[in-house]
Specification:
This protein is an alpha+beta fold. The protein has a single domain (8-74, 82-138), classed as YjbQ-like (Jelly Rolls, Sandwich), CATH 2.60.120.460. It is built from three helices and eight strands; from the N terminus they run ββαββααββββ. A five-stranded antiparallel sheet has the order 1-8-3-5-6, with helices on one face. Strands 2-7-4 form a three-stranded antiparallel sheet. It is elongated. The mean pLDDT is 97.
Length: 139
């Protein structure tokens, strides 16, 4: 059984929900040699997150982002405001989504559903470079 762990620095993204499946696959070409295993993707931030969702219709990530904005608006009376008006809503949105995803691997590919993709959820208005830890286990 092989273990591989790799860091992935993503380019800065504007606020929104962005597909990153391709970037992850490019960072881990070893997936192609895995018969059965798991990939764990973890984001090292508290104001951005990950989600697994539909990758066929670009309206889905846009609608999801708008829904999260409605759930955690900037004009809510937050106590934590020192890092700007978009910071505390970002923390709330991270709590509603995921900091880590585990995806099965089979026959050298991610075993995602037909319409599924991995997405970075960037909640800050100012683009940030986000860092992921990719941990691959399999044989």
């Amino acid at each position: 059984m092989a273990w591989i762990q790799r860091d992935l620095q993503l380019p800065p993204f504007a606020a929104g929900i962005h597909p990153i499946t391709r970037e992850i696959l490019e960072a881990l070409p070893e997936i192609q040699g895995i018969k059965a295993g798991l990939l764990h993707v973890f984001i090292l931030h508290t104001s951005a997150s990950l989600t697994l969702n539909e990758n066929a219709d670009p309206d889905v990530p846009d609608d999801l982002y708008r829904a999260l904005d409605a759930i955690a608006p900037e004009d809510f009376p937050y106590a934590h405001t020192i890092e700007g008006p978009d910071d505390m809503p970002a923390h709330v949105k991270v709590s509603l989504t995921d900091s880590g995803l585990t995806i099965p691997i089979g026959a050298g590919r991610l075993r995602l559903g037909t319409w599924q993709g991995i997405f970075l959820c960037e909640y800050r208005r100012s683009p940030h470079r986000r860092h992921l830890v990719l941990t691959l286990q399999g044989e």
